Amino acid sequence: MGAIFAPFLAPHDPFNPATLNLMNGFTGPMTPNQFTQDVFVLGTDDQGRDVLSTILFGMRISLFVGFSAVFLAMILGVILGLLAGYIGGWLDSVIMRVADVQLTFPSILVAMLIFGIAKGVTPAEFRDQVAIWVLILAIGLSDWVQFARVVRGATLVERQKEYVQAAQLIGRANIAVMLKHILPNVLNPVLVIATISLALAIIAEATLSFLGVGAPPTKPSLGTLIRIGQEYMFSGEWWILFFPAITLLALALSINLLGDWLRDALNPRLR
Amino acid sequence: MQLTHSKKTLRTMLMTAAVSAVAISSVSAETLRWARAGDSLTLDPHAQNEGPTHTLAHQIYEPLIIRDMSGQFQAALATDWAPSPDDPNVWVFNLREGVTYHDGAAFTAEDVVFSIGRAQSENSNMKELLNSIVEVRAVDDLTVEMVTDGPNPILPSNLTNLFMMDSGWAEANGVVEVQDVEGGETTFAATNANGTGAYKLVSREPDVRTVLTQNENYWGIGQFPLAITEIIYTPIQNAATRVAALLSGEVDFIQDVPVQDLDRVANTDGLVVKTAPQNRVIFFGMNMGAADIANDNVDGANPLADVRVRRAMNMAINREAIQQVVMRGQSQPAGMIAPPFVNGWTAEMDGSVSTDVEAARVLMAEAGYSDGFSIQLDCPNDRYINDEAICQAAVGMMAQIGITVNLDAKPKAQHFPLITNGETDFYMLGWGVPTYDSEYIFNFLTHTRGDDRGSWNGTGYSNPEMDTMIQSLASETDLNARNATIQAIWDDVQEQQLYLPIHHQVLNWGMSDAVGIDVSPEDDPKFKFFTMN
Questions:
Q1: Which of B325, B391, B418, B424 to probe by mutation at the A interface, max A CB count within 10 Å?
Q2: Residue ranges making up the domain that contains A193
Q3: Which residues in B have their CB inside 8 Å of a CB on A?
Q4: A13 lies in a domain?
Q5: How many Cβ contacts (< 8 angstroms) between chains A and B?
Q6: Strand B426-432 vs strand B271-286: parallel, antiparallel, or unpaired?
Q7: What is the DSSP letter of B131?
Q8: A16 found inside a domain
Q9: In-domain check, residue A9
Q10: What is the mean pLDDT of chain B?
């Protein structure tokens, strides 16, 4: 909630570099700055950005990237999974072998690869603007396999059922059978995977940004903030690392809990 | 503390390993584990005129004359040098006798002729230091004469980073030509080394680990402390990791303690921080020569070509804030791109800047950019102290006068070629001055880029009048007239706002208290001078 309404809640706009006062850098939480006497609830980072505002805005980026990436992965995974499960044959083999090959790489590596290629091909002046979209694409493309596998499995089961055969008998087109009849019945597990993937995607985004290949330093996401913060771990400026890290933890935890709840709620046997 | 401990461990290991304990000599092996943010760019001693590259080369190769740890001249491969009594255009160098390279070959006058010639060749990055030399003659095996195009009183100070290679080794290994770093070439000499220095190369993995061991045939044994017998050099880019390595005793010596960790390191038992102002200035350069620049949003014009824009940018930089917050006091704000060590520096020019955002906005409006423009800033992230943080701070400062800056920070190995190839429009650079004279700065940074000079001038600035003045410096023997010319050139540089100076760096070396050495103003530890407590 805080993330959505960040522009109204946050005391400062951390993404507008013109409003930053470097003299506010490294202010501790709730202590007045030694030069400007300004007070910040959670302190400021090395560039004088208010940590609270930056977390709120950073969370927006993290959530946006997470949702979009999972959405992309879901669309891709469901379509490919349906095709593989329903049509079968060589198409099934091709899709599933591609999925197997991709599963052998850690998804973070795949994401870094995509990110690196995209950085190379985009012109410099757009790089900051497209960085977020590239991030979404990178995480989305590295994450579709789970969806595809689950949907394929469920589709294989559903395909044998009477209602599907009935639909085929009355001459409905394959595409209609897949979308209208099978899809609704395989959607439950997909939703559960989606929530778990969301938490993973947020962590993947944070990891990429932590490694310095994600969100640009002038538009920090939670991962970028943690990367900045860890530079100052030894010097006692703990708040730059601590608050973003706690936020990331809380975010991932609450989404996982949501996923658990959703699984229970959608499972008729547990209801 | 930590070092003695590791020494003990090492000894114990040696004891256990060598069952025939007789073999162990009484000489204690002192290994120095050395870390800094970045690695040497190449082992080819003439391919890159860059601080960390020279620092590693100084352990393996030697020039005719070096500067000791306090910056004073000291005889290295030359024992003495003087202008010829017969001809004011000739310098005579007497070479040291009985010096051999690591592979056993003897060092002779032929190698000096070869090395200077190599450093003057097309791909060399050291040409600017040698462009007054017209001929190098080997008079006999141990005497060399250098003929200049006019009397050059400061020639010796141009030779302190000019390393001597063995001509035979270079020919045998096909490295007579200097490595073309900008062209992405690697050669045998870039990964192997054969010098006369106090340390020999044992192994090298670029950006990972370089191991050197003491040269048992070194000519200076007995003249220098040579307390360190083995050097293990590991670049550690991440500041926190570097400090952690020092705190945990994993390394003994780091050249760049992050400013936020100075207290932490100094207050740790067994560790010391030694501080001294560095002979290095940090600044931004701008591509003002191009008709249009690639990385901006202005079509058909180059905003940086307008001196008013450059002045506005200069006024927008809040050097005070960078010093107080980014550098935590460990810098001295600069108004010119020469450190105070350098002949030609004046307090007046260096103190000439003040931050005035209002006036800067007016200048921007006068230049027709009241709405600003966008541009990319290229920045290294493993070269200068807090380089990326300074660039980030500049993003905010430029935004205040309407300039939207896209920051692209990357390792120096990718950053520097952008400057030397002229592929960046707005960049950060730092410049140390090993000759302690302004001519060095002008030759590399303000002279028109050409075959002999201006190789690090990424601004595209070209002024024939200034070029003539710069060229006259090498052979001007009247020091007052020479200094007047230097001042005149500086006036132009300041007037045209060729660069945006930021600050002079302050060096902070962190080390185990077993290491005995003081900070050198050029940030170039030469380990043969190190003692161990």
A1: B325
A2: 49-266
A3: 238-240, 243-244, 247, 258, 260-261, 263-264, 294-297, 318, 321-322, 324-326, 374, 376, 388-389, 392-393, 395-400, 405-409
A4: no
A5: 83
A6: antiparallel
A7: T
A8: no
A9: no
A10: 90
- Residue A121 is assigned to a structural domain of this protein: yes
Q: Which residues contact B282 (CB under 8 A, 6 or more apart)?
A: B331, B334, B384, B387, B390, B428, B429, B430, B501, B502, B503, B504, B505
Q: Which residues of B touch A235 (CB under 8 A)?
A: 258, 260-261, 263-264
- State the helix-helix crossing angle for B387-399 and B307-316, rounded to 10 degrees: 110
| Residue A163 φ then ψ, to 5° | -65, -30
C-alpha to C-alpha distance for B86 and B236, rounded to whole angstroms: 53
Query: How many alpha carbons fall within 13 Å on the CB side of residue B284?
Result: 31
Give the gap in angstroms from C-alpha A20 to the nearest C-alpha of chain B. Answer: 6
**B118: its two tokens:** 């190599």
Which CATH number belongs to the domain containing residue A226 in this structure? 1.10.3720.10
Q: CA-CA distances (angstroms) from residue A268 to A180, A194, A264? A: 21, 19, 8
Question: In this predicted model, what pLDDT tens digit does every residue of B397-442 receive, in sequence order?
Answer: 999 999 999 888 888 888 999 999 989 999 999 999 989 999 999 9
* A218–B238 C-beta distance less than 8 A: no
Q: Which of B148, B12, B134 is nearest to B84 (CA)?
A: B148
Band (pLDDT 50/70/90 cuts) for residue B31 is: very high
Enumerate residues 6+ apart whose C-beta is below 8 A from B358.
none
Q: Which amino acid is located at B314 in the chain?
A: N
Nearest to B324 among A35, A217, A230 (CB): A35
Residue A187 has pLDDT above 80, yes or no: yes
Q: Which residues 6+ apart lie within 8 Å of A123 measured at CB?
A: none
* B157-196 pLDDT per residue, tens: 999 999 999 999 999 999 999 999 888 889 999 999 999 9
- Please say whether the beta carbons of B415 and B379 come within 8 A: yes
CB contact (8 A) between residue A218 and residue B392 = yes
Task: Find the CB nearest B406 among A22, A127, A234.
Answer: A127
At residue B84 the predicted structure's pLDDT band, cuts being 50, 70 and 90, is very high
Number of domains in chain A: 1
Name the residue among B428, B374, B432, B380 with its Cα closest to residue B405.
Answer: B374
Q: Which of B397, B399, B407 has its CB closest to that of A217?
A: B407
| Amino acid type, B300 | G
Half-sphere exposure of B406 (CA within 13 A, CB side): 19
* Rounded Cα gap, residues B427 and B423, in angstroms: 10
Of B63, B49, B48, B41, which is closest to residue B432 (Cα–Cα)? B49
Report CA-CA distances (Å) from B312 to B116, B170, B290, B317, B402: 43, 50, 19, 9, 11
Among the partner residues B263, B325, B376, nearest to A22 by beta-carbon distance? B325
Concatenating the DSSP letter of every residue in B435-451 gives T-BHHHHIIIIISPP-S
Query: Residue A111: its pLDDT value, please?
Result: 78
Task: Give me the torsion for CA of B299, B304, B307, B312, rounded to 10°.
Answer: 110
B399 to A217: CB separation less than 8 angstroms, yes or no? no
Residue closest to A63 by CA, chosen among A167, A128, A139, A129: A139
Per-residue DSSP letter, B132: T
